[in-house]
Amino acid sequence: MFNNIFSSIIAGSTFSGSEFVIITMAAFLCGLIIAGSYMIKNRYSKSFVTTLVLLPAIVELVIILVNGNLGAGVAVAGAFSLVRFRSAPGRGQEITGIFLAMAVGLAAGMGYVGIALIFSLVVSGVNLILKFAHFGAESKGVKMLKIAVPENLDYENRFEDTFKKYLKEYSYDDVRTTNMGSLYKLTLSVVMKENTSSREFLDELRTLNGNLDISLGRMVEPQEAL
User: Fold this and answer.
1) Which tens digit of pLDDT belongs to each residue from 34-67?
2) Are 168 and 192 in contact (CB under 8 A)?
3) 214 beta partners
4) Which residues lie closer than 8 Å to 5 by C-beta, 6 or more apart?
5) Residue 203 is inside which H or E element, if any?
6) pTM above 0.90, yes or no
7) Among the CATH numbers 3.30.70.240, 3.55.40.20, 3.50.50.60, 3.40.50.2000, which is that of 142-218?
């Protein structure tokens, strides 16, 4: 009985109507599982989670139609590769969701309904465990500091004493020119010392950069819309 879960319900290169309905429903269920787990503690758009629901069934149908036809399979693989160039680059979590949806769609299309469902549940479950355990998360004490400075200011030595006074750690992440080259915009990752005042820190920086723009906030992961 247990081994039957890992067997294909499609015998040979043909399939019946009932088998097609079972496979398609399983593909939709896998998509719902993947989309539901992605929606937990993730930023998402309606179009993206809808894609995760529908993608396994779409891939499943393609695999069924090209079953045993090598030429059609190569053509479909080429068509899928074009999708990469028609979409915005996304975060690792989004790419993982898309690949998982395609993988279970492939398994369902070959008739391995049990494998598709179990794999969807296992991977989605592991993903949630890692997310709730904050696996690989940055320290909550890390903040992003942005400072605008005039082009004639020696920023590499200007702020060092203040940084050592208020910060436990800091590193320059990005330095770029702005406002037609008349300003530098510094972006740093910083960890403030305990029992230090953010307001006093920013006030002291304002006296050093000519009272130009300064911001201090939490680290924000860039988001691309898919």
Assistant:
1) 999 999 878 888 888 998 999 999 888 888 877 7
2) yes
3) 147
4) 114, 115, 118
5) helix 198-206
6) no
7) 3.30.70.240
Judged against a pLDDT cut of 90, whether residue 92 lies above it is answered with no
CB 218 within 8 A of CB 144: yes
Burial 29-51 (b: 16+ CB within 10 A, else e): bbbebbbebbeeeeebeeebbeb
DSSP per-residue codes, 61-112: HHHHHTTT-HHHHHHHHHHHHHHGGGS----HHHHHHHHHHHHHHHHHHTT-
pLDDT per residue as tens digits for the range 94-151: 888 888 998 898 888 888 899 999 999 999 999 889 888 877 666 567 889 999 999 8
Residues of the chain with CATH 3.30.70.240: 142-218
Tokens 């702005």 appear where?
Answer: 178
Q: Which of 169, 160, 157 is nearest to 196 (CA)?
A: 169
